[in-house]
Task: inverse folding
């Protein structure tokens, strides 16, 4: 019988799942693994993991099961046929999905008699040992506290609160920053290369300028908490600046779609500001985009009536 305080099951052996198994094994934790494509378990077994032949066997092996799947829908596909094995277990779902999907998944697991934790793995690629890597957790505090030590080999832990969706709110918030950054870096380095220059010469300056980003985050977070940064002259300057980036990119033959999108936001903010008679921030436009698309303070109605939305 496994020592339930020092043993865990990992279901899902993609790059992140395999990194988790290796971290557990390195810490001396006994690991049972299962994957829909069984050949992915071979390398993990060679490292010392135990192979489960079925999902039922994987769930039965340990009290705690960590899921590393593509999305929450995969959890239902994998666990659904053996849901009767969930009673008395703990499911830590570290898969990426929306906050609401996390909440629904938590309810589904609990309805079947198991405890649930949601997580968001913030890592440098699949390198969960990188100094910048850590994991958000949310769900009942007592459940987290009871199993935090077992999960600790996966990386530094940031417990956010009881809301099952909170880990994904923060996780997806950070990915919201990362995705356009990654595309912007591709655009910038493509521009350097297509202009006939050395990317390696450029990168140190990108790293140097990146050091200012925490300052901007701190400053703009304060402004966003009270409606966002909005200054008509500044918004027009950002519009003009975006045009310069577009010109430099397109002169080099580089796709500037991302910069066109940024420019469109600046122009929407300028138009909304003129229509409202007071500065309107891009933060305000984005914050209202889904529930009330740009309707704050009658801005949209004014833009339409005056023709400034074009």
Result:
């Amino acid at each position: 019988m496994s020592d339930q305080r020092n043993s865990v099951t990992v279901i899902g052996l993609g790059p992140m799942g395999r990194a988790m198994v290796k971290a557990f094994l390195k810490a001396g934790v006994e690991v049972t693994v299962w994957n829909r494509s069984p050949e992915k378990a071979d390398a993990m077994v060679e490292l010392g993991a135990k192979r489960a032949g079925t999902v039922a066997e994987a769930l039965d092996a340990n009290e705690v099961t960590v899921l590393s799947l593509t999305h929450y829908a995969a959890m239902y596909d994998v666990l659904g046929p053996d849901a009767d094995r969930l009673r008395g277990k703990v499911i830590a779902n570290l898969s990426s999905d929306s906050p609401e999907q996390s909440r629904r998944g938590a309810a589904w697991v609990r309805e079947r008699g198991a405890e649930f934790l949601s997580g968001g793995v913030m890592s440098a690629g699949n390198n969960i040992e990188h100094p910048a890597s850590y994991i958000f957790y949310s769900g009942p505090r007592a459940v987290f506290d009871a199993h935090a030590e077992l999960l600790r080999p996966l990386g530094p832990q940031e417990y956010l609160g009881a809301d099952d969706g909170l880990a994904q709110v923060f996780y997806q918030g950070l990915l919201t920053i990362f995705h356009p950054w990654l595309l912007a870096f591709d655009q910038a380095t493509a521009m350097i290369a297509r202009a006939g220059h050395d990317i390696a010469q450029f990168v140190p300056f990108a790293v140097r300028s990146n050091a200012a980003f925490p300052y901007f985050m701190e400053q703009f977070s304060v402004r966003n908490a009270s409606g966002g940064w909005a200054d008509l002259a500044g918004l027009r300057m950002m519009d003009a600046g975006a045009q310069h980036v577009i010109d430099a990119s397109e002169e080099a033959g580089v796709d500037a779609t991302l910069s066109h999108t940024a420019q469109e936001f600046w122009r929407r903010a300028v138009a909304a500001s003129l229509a409202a008679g007071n500065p309107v921030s891009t933060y305000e436009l984005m914050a209202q985009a889904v529930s009330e698309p740009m309707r704050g303070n009658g801005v949209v109605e004014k833009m339409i009536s005056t023709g400034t939305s074009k």
Notes: The CA atoms of residues 124 and 131 lie 9 Å apart. Residues 166-194 form the longest helix (29 residues). The two ends are 69 Å apart (CA to CA). Residues 292-310 have pLDDT under 50 and may be disordered.
